[in-house]
Amino acid sequence: MKLVIAVVQDQDVNRLVEELLEAGFSSTKLASTGGFLKEGNTTLLIGAAETQVSKVMDIINHTCKS
């Protein structure tokens, strides 16, 4: 089991959580604040089997923008 920690923009978090749930992954959501621009961020803690980490990363990369 691996723990994926993803810090995402507030505007992307709801869509990301929905996509993760549809793929069978649950997550824990923590509110956080960025350091430089003080923009709202959300930290997601996502548990995944070692073989599923790449799938989680694909969902994050596809759903969130940088």
Number of helices: 2
Rg from alpha-carbon coordinates: 12 Å
Largest sheet: 3 strands, antiparallel
Mean of pLDDT:
91
Give the neighbour order of strands across the main sheet.
1-3-2
Walk me through the structure:
The chain has 66 residues and is of the alpha+beta class. It has helices at residues 10-22, 53-63; strands at 2-9, 27-33, 40-48. The protein has a three-stranded antiparallel sheet, with helices on one face. Strand 2 (27-33) and strand 3 form a beta hairpin. The radius of gyration is 12 Å and the shape is globular. The protein starts with a strand and ends with a helix.
Task: Give the topology, please.
Layout: E1 2-9, H1 10-22, E2 27-33, E3 40-48, H2 53-63
Helix pairs in contact: 1-2
Short description:
The protein has helices spanning 10-22, 53-63, and strands spanning 2-9, 27-33, 40-48. The chain is an alpha+beta fold.
What are the defining features of this structure?
three-stranded antiparallel beta sheet, 2 helices, 66 residues, alpha+beta
